[in-house]
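[job 0412] stage=complex_fold ligand=flavin-adenine dinucleotide status=START
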Amino acid sequence: GIGRPGVSTAALLLTAASGGGLVAYADSAAESAPEPSQDAPKKKVLVLGTGWAGTSFLKNLDCSRYEVKVISPRNYFAFTPLLPSVTCGTVEPRSIIEPIRRMFEKKSKDVTFCEAECFKIDAIVALGATVNTFNTPGVLEHCHFLKEVEDAQKIRMSVIDCFEKASLPNISEEEKRKALHFVVIGGGPTGVEFAAELHDFLVEDLVKLYPAIQELVKITIIQSGDHILNMFDKRIAAFAEQKFQRDGIEVATGFRVVRVSDDSISMKSKSVGGEVSVPYGMAVWSAGIGTRPVIMDFMQQIGQTNRRALATNEWLRVRECEGVYAIGDCATVSQRKIMDDISMVFKMADKDNSGTLTLKEINDVLEDICIRYPQVDLYMKSMHMLDIADLIKGAIGDSHKESMVADIEEFKKALSHVDSQVKSAPATAQVAAQQGYYLAECFNKMEKCKEHPEGPLRMTGESGRHFFRPFRYKHLGQFAPLGGEQAAAELPGDWVSMGHSTQWLWYSVYASKQVSWRTRMLVVSDWTRRFIFGRDSSRI
Ligand code: FAD
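[job 0412] stage=complex_fold status=DONE, emitting structure tokens
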């Protein structure tokens, strides 16, 4: 076990993640202000995990206010979006990692790091996520995964292994074809990016180094859905499928892998039924993330069973668990419906149940809604407050003004758009980093907000206002590198961009997002080295 709640110090924040997840724990005092007195002992903050969520939290936390301990089985931060580039040697592993001790060198007085793994969360303490094999037989034994730096290094070795094996004398053509059949299971962003990297490695480097066997190589993506990249805009999925078809990458959609043995992969077609088996040389499983056992155990303790991730409220606190915070891939923020909230706030404002609110009351309600949903704020600013008040009353069923029906519909549409935006908080680095930043800010301004709460009205439990505004994810877009110096991007405002120029945008964004100048220089020099000399195919 790692920590205990209610230790003598007033607050304890524990964050821990796994394969893309992070949990934070604080005792109940964490929601109250730290003692202003200089003599009072500092509150303890224990952070589990040094991934996107944990480091974003630590970077933004005013560590001088707390006694911070960080626990993680790896003593570095890994820039996971560049992991697929490590699998083929486009980028070296050391270029995408930053030692934790170096990252927080300037805060070393207030932050201590311990390389260890949390194996049990004691009573109300926490941890994160791993790969999900959906209990498919043989996957754990025979497939590679792509979650950690070590995974990417193993894949790199294995790719070269397959080429060397197929180049040995006295090997039949059938065996060569088998060794050179690379199968990617899962057509999401990671699987697609890996297939694209592999294809580039093949056509840019390996064909020159292994000319005798180049014709025998095959890359297949198996995807259970109807399209690859189905979380992206349809245009991007179609562009990727066409590009892969031109490149000779086979995309088998509508197939579910049911078994993996040491030499073949069995899958079932969703439409036709029946099982087909394909021989393979190397398989990479990237069909989704699952819950780490330690988090599963914790969820059982607090009654959150049958879930993939820990449910938190909109302030990122684990539900049914006072004082435990969860951020990153191991958590999901329980969503509220904006229309429900609006109805509820109106009911609260209408204390005498007369159904008539004064202008001031309506304004208060609107302000409260803007705090809950910053996106609505923009919409409201573009209209007259009174019109909005009428529309809101109409939208919640109080108005009979027929002339306003169309406007009300429009308003509802705008609100349901907000609802859908709030809902879409996937398990990505972007979400994890924003959650880490948000939580650190809350911890930093705890004193101020306790006296002057900036959050909306509490709808349940005690009356008054929440100390903080709720967490709202802001989607900044996402990329899908497709190989051959081409990429696709979905940017805010439903803007879609594809092709060579998008690949340059990808280079600039990923260079700028590096966590230090050191890794930025290393990554850019790796890209340059690859342009000039190609990738290194030695097996060391
Ligand atoms: P992680 O970053 O996985 O960090 C988990 C941390 O918890 C690690 O430090 C780990 O060592 C630690 N830990 C684990 N178990 C324990 C334990 N028992 N005790 C203590 N510490 C523990 N997202 C994007 O937004 N854009 C992308 O382009 C993108 N590309 C990706 C490519 C790949 C190949 C992968 C695998 C992921 C990609 N993601 C991308 C997703 C992104 O990496 C995750 O969403 C993100 O890492 C989640 O952050 P996290 O802090 O929750 O978890």
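The longest strand covers residues 66-72.
[job 0412] exit 0
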